[in-house]
Amino acid sequence: MTALWALVVVVNKKVLEFVTPVAVNFCIRLVAIAGLLLITIPLTELDLWSNGFGINAEAAGWIALTALATWLVAFNAYYYALRGERVAVIAPICGTDPIWTALFAWLMLGTVFGGATLVGMGVAMTGVVLISRRIGEGTASEASVLAGVGALAGAAHGDVLPGAAGARDAVAGAAVPSAVPTTANAKARLIALAVLAAAGWGLGPIFIDLAAGAYGRTTATMMLLSQVLGALMLGGVLLLRRAPLTVRPLTPPERRRTVLLLGGAGLLEAFVAVLFYLCIEAIGPVLTMLIMATTPVFSIILGVVFLRERPGLRLTLAAAVTVAGVLIATLDGAT
Questions:
Q1: C-alpha–C-alpha distance, residues 102 and 268, integer Å
Q2: The whole model's pTM is what?
């Protein structure tokens, strides 16, 4: 599950070179729905798993909240952040989602965790601060994206993340890339987007766990309903904003490559979704997120191999500190 998700991160980074973030999110939802149908129908009809189909009104309500938190909020924030920086920077920050799961489990489910969780949270946040200091120290192209806050938010195409107030106003500052306030502002936006993605991803498993408790088990219907509702929400955003779907007019080879990347990312997400739900049912949301906490390690390795990223020793150590903090926090929460 973690290895597949890390591969999805790398594919997402590539496809964002051609397609705007909300459009990427929407297209991948459509492919993921088809992938889930291809996976769950045979599993159910051949009695290869016990989940099957089915849902009730209470569970559907929790799944609707899952779609809102995960697909509309968290994934949009994640795609915008990923477009603006290296995988080695964004993945570890987004990888703090298990801490958010533990926090929401405490607030909403009454889950008790000890002092080690607080220590882990502190260590992870220290790692995030260290990572934030490395933002903008990548390649020249990455530094250009960072300086142009308007490019980060897609403001040049009117493609602004809902709730990201003032993104278009920041374009004026981006006209002077060397200006220090603009760079600092862009760093703050990147960190905020990555943390928002982590918080949304951390909340999702809690809603899934509540849905499973309301119905008695997780089901393929829940997986599909979540994706369908997410696609409807994202489609509504695209229709209301009427923004271009691609960052520029694409050549025929680029269009073919984009279709392949979107299709591959969507199918991979479908497999990960099935594994994710099964893990939550088998071991609970906190342990599931503990396993997912190792994703940044895979992401950084795959980023080096496939994206030719060079994170450097300091960024690698900062990422290691973040992952270590997440592991400490969620291990304590799991016990």
A1: 26
A2: 0.81
